[in-house]
Amino acid sequence: MGIFSKFKRYNFNMASSKAVDLFQQGEYEKSKDIFLQLLKMNYAPVECNDYLFEIYYNLGDLDNALLHLNNSLEINPNNIDNIINKGIVLYELDKNDEALEYYNNALLLDDRNENARVGKLSVLVEQGKYDEAKSFYNSIVVNTNEDYILAMYATLLYVLNMLDDALKYSNKSLQINNNNVEYWNTKGLILSRLKKYDESLKCFNYALSLNPNHINSLINKGSLYDELSEYDEAIACFNKALQINANDVVAWANLSNSYRLSKDYDNSIMSIDKALKLNPNDEILWDKKGLYLDEMTKYDEALICFDKALEINPKSINVLINKANTLFHLKRFNEALNVIEKAFSLDGNCRDIALVKIKILKELNMNNEADILEKEAKDMPEIEDRSLIHGKLFY
Prior knowledge:
395 residues, Serine Threonine Protein Phosphatase 5, Tetratricopeptide repeat, disordered C terminus, TPR repeat, Tetratricopeptide repeat-containing protein
């Protein structure tokens, strides 16, 4: 190697060290510029692409993050960390089928990798494949001391209603990191669902002592007050959350529910309309508005909301049930039966669907069919209530 080549290599190494230092200091733009120049000169392409992936990811530019991640994987396709990272990025881009493929690929390389396991579980939960998610979880033995992974398991198992295990992992995550506001918020949610309301409230209050502006804890504390029928306290929590972020859809949606529970329907509709203005493509929000209008006996307006929800998700069982109920209230029994049959075709083993169908059949004097279904319905599971979860499940 000649003197010039040695000098160039020395300068490259110096530049790389400078870029790494800037990255560690959070100076992502400056670090990015150096790594891009080094990459143009084909210096350490794997290292440069890996750092550029992290830089773009931290800057929220997922498309460019994915570009550099793909570059690294072309050079080293069996790098399990990058395979998992690609799963994470695809998950955040709502490309869940592709994300699941990469998590499965990672598990083929190492079936005990907890990042790959929790990633796969997250995708299955996000897709609503709860039975498959439970089956996958039951097939593994969790073995990690990483607090964020333990907290992820706690959150996912809370969604799956596997509350004993959820609480176990929540407690373990807090034993490792007692000052993480998200972990206390998660424990509060789990305890609330276990109906341990005093303990739950202590968790939300502790989370808010760590960060008084933590919107999720304020919202979940408000929801807890709703459970306790303390609607003024609930409304105060949601309003405080909205003072912090007036565009928080979940806060508006929960505020609308508190007003509904306190029979203040005007403010309930105003609040759900605020949520829908911010997110008009949310099936659950349209469904909630339809339910509120049904309670107000504004059945025709309720049907419009259910139809909008079904435009977004034609296979929503909850919406089909609610639409059938509203048609029942209008005494449009044949139409109600057609709608509930659609729900039944999606899930023939659901008590909620069966009970609606039974009352419709009785109104249509189809009593034999109603009696048979009534006996079968006793052994059918109920639909678990859908919570409004704040965003994706990764911390």
